[in-house]
Structures are given as structure tokens and as C-alpha cells.
Amino acid sequence: xxxxxxxxxxxxxxxxxxxxxxxxxxxxxxxxxxxxxxxxxxxxxxxxxxxxxxxxxxxxxxxxxxxxxxxxxxxxxxxxxxxxxxxxxxxxxxxxxxxxxxxxxxxxxxxxxxxxxxxxxxxxxxxxxxxxxxxxxxxxxxxxxxxxxxxxxxxxxxxxxxxxxxxxxxxxxxxxxxxxxxxxxxxxxxxxxxxxxxxxxxxxxxxxxxxxxxxxxxxxxxxxxxxxxxxxxxxxxxxxxxxxxxxxxxxxxxxxxxxxxxxxxxxxxxxxxxxxxxxx
Length: 280
Known about the structure:
This protein is mostly helical and 280 residues long. It is built from 9 helices and 2 strands. Strands 1-2 form a two-stranded antiparallel sheet. It is flat and about 180 Å long.
């Protein structure tokens, strides 16, 4: 008995948990013409829907802002044709009379002209008092002003200018005075050098004719470029090296090692400037 009561309770509990079955008759309608039941996806027309349509949201009315008129209205301008030179018409007597200057304007113009003339006269007077010479009228048609008594320009070559100041006798006396003041210096012998300055490299440059780098004498290749650079560094100038080279048996022998190529010129000494000066 207890088992059957427990089974019934279990069935009741299972039936309560089972989801409801869908209505299989939903979407089915009866066709009176054919006498058949047909299924449709849409509910019948007489079905009442339980859905409710929400009310439309209320939008608060906004007051339109007044438009400020910032652009002034366009003014109407009467279209007047332009008068060209070819289509100009003769003016009427009234218009011509309006263009004639009045007596007051003529009087004002005369007053201005008189004041300008007065100021110009005063300026010219002041300028003449300050410099003593009247101002020149700057005009292209005016000739160039003549300059008098210019101490920077001599007129000795102007016969017309000198003729009025001198005579033939005065010119003769002036030539005689210039001849008396003229002194002729007679040439003298070139002074000899004092002391022993060593060989004359200028005379040696003029005696030789070959350019630098031309081998004229045989040399022993001893030491090479290092010996040559070290030997030339002992002298303060190329002229001093050439004098020492000539004084030690050069150009035939090179005891100092300053002429390894055998051209007869020590270090970087060049005889060309002396030859050019002498015209050789």
C-alpha cells in the first residue's frame, strides 16, 4: 500500500515538472468550401491579440529662437548708364553752369597761390643769405653751371686762360729758372758686397738654362726620400739650402743630400723667377 502511494506521488511530481505541450491547433482553420482543415502560419482574423502597443513618447515642444537680421537689406540703386567719350551728349545750360567754379572757390585758389608764392620767395631769400649764391633752377634745358677759381684744376694747358696772365718774357724767365734747378746725376759703379755671403744664387740661376727636374749630374741613391727630407729640414729656406749646396761642391757633387734627382737645384729652390726678371 505504501509503495502504490509513493508511486502515485512520484507521478504527480513528474507531471508538475513536465513543460506544457504546445497547442497543435494553433494556426489551423476550417475551409467551408472543401470541408478540410488547413494549417496557416498566421492566426485567424477573428483571433484577439494580447499584445499592447505602448504610447508614443511625448516630445517637449521647443520654442523657436527668433532669427536676428544681421544683413541689412540691399539698397536699390538706380541704374544710370555711363557716359563715354564717344557717346557723350552736350550738357544742358544748367549742367554747364553747375560746373563753372564759383567766385568763392576762385578766391580761395588765388589765396593759396599767393601763400605758396610768398613761402617760395622767403625760402629763396633765406638760401641766398646763407650761401651767398642764388639757387639754381634744376631743369634739363639749363646749361651746366660754370665753376670759377677751382683750386683743384690747373689751366696751364689752356692757352686762352694763360695768355691773359703771362707774357713771352715771363715764360722765358721761368724756363731758365727751371733749367738752373735741374741737376744731372751721373751713374756710378755698383758697390761691392761686404763680407762673405756665400755663392751667388742669382748668378747661378742666370747661368743655367734647364728647368727643375732635369737630371744633369749623377747621384748615389743613399738614404732615399727620408735622407732628403731630413737634410732640407735643417735649412730655414730653399735659398739657404741652395747656397749651402753650392758651397759644398754643388752642383757636381751632393754632399748634403739635398739634390737627389741631380738637376743642380737643392730642395725646392726654383731659378725661374730670376730668369723671368732678367728676361732670359
